[in-house]
Amino acid sequence: MSIATRATGLLSSASRPGGSAPDRRLSTPERILYAAAARIVASGTANLSMQDVADAAGVSKGLIHYHFHDKETLLTRLIEWMTHESVDREAATLARSTPKTAVDDLWMWVAGEIDRGHLRVLNELAQERGPLISDAIRRSAQARREAAMVTVDRLFALLELRPRVPVQLLADVIVAFIDGLAIHASIAPQANHRVAFDVLWLSLLSLAE
Q1: Could you tell me how far CA 3 lies from the centroid of its own chain?
Q2: What is the percent of the chain where pLDDT is above 90?
Q3: Per-residue confidence band for 88, with pLDDT thresholds at 50, 70 and 90
Q4: What is the Cα–Cα distance from 209 to 207, expressed in whole angstroms?
Q5: Which domains are seen in the chain, by residue range?
Q6: pLDDT at 91 over 60
Q7: Nearest-CA neighbor of 83 among 37, 39, 48?
Q8: Are 92 and 48 in contact (CB under 8 A)?
Q9: What is the DSSP string of 49-117?
Q10: Terminal-residue alpha carbon distance, the chain
Q11: Residue 67's closest CA among 54, 55, 80?
């Protein structure tokens, strides 16, 4: 099992801007991943240094290199972890939804992802160069697209509707919209993003038989 997978449940509650220091019960690699995510959320990818991550994780810079070799490897594992967490949370979102609560449940998931800041981090890392990071970003995009397809299918089924547009296209729209919302939320945190979300889903649900 990868570090990204094992970190999922342990880090989700702590990994948000302004959060407290990493839980000491986490393994060293998990603490490093948490710290890297927190530093990027706070200061951006361009300003990330291995020393900053080491300070945030409470470890030596040499220990980071021991577990992750170099910055590119660390960022690659970070992409895997953040993607895995987000996809898992999305999969669980509609598991217990009813037709009456489905759209609200979906919004709660989107709002949580925006609050964590990890989607904005994934967008930032998509601009990074390096074969490992580029491959990880492509896998991340595919995983998120597939998760969105499942979400669309589930939501339309709950509402007893059938989309007239291919689910793949709707999934692409949803992923792009959520990424845009995450970026806009970092620029205008006081904006009412729920309104934009409702407009999107009203539009998508109108494309139904």
Answers
A1: 16
A2: 61
A3: very high
A4: 7
A5: 3-205 (1.10.357.10)
A6: yes
A7: 37
A8: no
A9: -HHHHHHHHTS-HHHHHHHHSSHHHHHHHHHHHHHHHHHHHHHHHTTT--TTTHHHHHHHHHHHHHHH-
A10: 42
A11: 54
